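User: tokens in, sequence out, please.
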């Protein structure tokens, strides 16, 4: 996506806002953005550690590929119950 449109962030924020109670939207977006930033720091560090330990770009990149797979598995346990 173009950086002029804000990338994927406006879409993510809109999805969060549509799935949360109005009072909780700002808090949810703030917490989500904080987690996003922390992961943005941790992933390159983890890949660097794996590369330093193994000397293999292949294993380091497979480590990076494992992240979305773990997220997909964790998503299975998420329950959505709309407020009535």
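Assistant: Sequence out:
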């Amino acid at each position: 996506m173009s950086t002029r449109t804000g990338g994927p962030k406006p879409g993510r924020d809109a999805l969060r806002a549509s799935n949360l109670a109005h009072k909780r939207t700002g808090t949810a977006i703030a917490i989500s953005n904080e987690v996003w930033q922390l992961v943005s720091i941790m992933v390159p560090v983890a890949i660097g550690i794996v590369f330093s330990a193994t000397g293999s770009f292949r294993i380091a990149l497979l480590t990076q590929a494992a992240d979305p797979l773990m997220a997909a598995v964790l998503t299975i346990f998420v329950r959505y119950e709309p407020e009535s």
